[in-house]
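ok so for the tutorial part 2 we go from a plain amino acid sequence to predicted structure tokens. step 1 is just haveing the sequence, like this:
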Amino acid sequence: MPEPGSIKFKAFHKQEKKLFSLYFDFESLTLPYHRCEPNPSTNESSTQNYQKHVPCSFSVVTRSEFEDYKEETVVFSNEDPDKVVKTFISELSRIHVGMMECYEKNQHPIHMSEEDEERFQESTSCHICSKELDWESKKNY
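step 2 — the prediction. this is what the tokens look like for a chain of 141 residues:
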């Protein structure tokens, strides 16, 4: 526990470079619900839904750290909300396949010198977050 008045950074995962990024946005129409009025004599709390969000379009933008990944922007619009959702899921699936193909192509083994390997084997703390390590946690860190 840090001393009072001191701050300790914990979100180390946010410092790591992301290989792929996906940004997406939905646009929806807000349609009114046809509903009954609550009974005031029951004196019960109730949530009243008054709008339904119906998807009508989406856009997806992809980015990657890999130079050979073809970044793209997908925009889709349709009157049928089911078609909008199905197309969105289909596009995400297609994009995922492309990202995984690129990732597999760009996997390279780590070539460590004997000195690097020795330093790794003898390390007792993480070089990123300084937490103490043991052999099991090093293998799965």
